[in-house]
């Protein structure tokens, strides 16, 4: 079964990966893909949006004669990630209370 996931959750996943370490686009896609079904074509607009909001910065690094664009989370990106994480915990608890606990605690 596949659930439709909103942009806030996708943002949180991207920021979570980058909070651990910098990553280039393909690597980032693979890491996020472990928890949600996304393509690179879906991820790059998200990265541009997060960069525009100054949650991410980029730098290029040479790899086997080609440049890779790496993404790095900023201080404001860390703050946004922490905010989204708190919201996720509350949201998850509410969903769990229905899915795991049943309606009206049955």
From TrEMBL:
Specify the superkingdom. Bacteria
The family database entries (Pfam families) matched by this protein are listed as: PadR
Give the Transcription regulator PadR N-terminal domain ranges. 14-82
Tell me the first and last residues of the signal peptide: none
Chain coiled-coil ranges: none
- What protein does this entry describe? PadR family transcriptional regulator PadR
């Amino acid at each position: 079964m596949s659930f439709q996931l909103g942009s806030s959750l996708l943002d949180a996943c991207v920021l979570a990966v980058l909070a651990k370490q910098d990553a280039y686009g393909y690597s980032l896609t693979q890491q996020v893909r472990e928890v949600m079904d996304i393509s690179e074509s879906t991820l790059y607009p998200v990265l541009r949006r997060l960069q525009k909001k100054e949650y991410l910065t980029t730098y290029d690094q040479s790899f086997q004669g080609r440049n890779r664009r790496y993404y790095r989370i900023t201080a404001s990106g860390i703050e946004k990630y922490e905010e989204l994480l708190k919201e996720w915990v509350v949201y998850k608890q509410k969903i769990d209370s229905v899915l795991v606990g049943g309606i009206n605690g049955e």
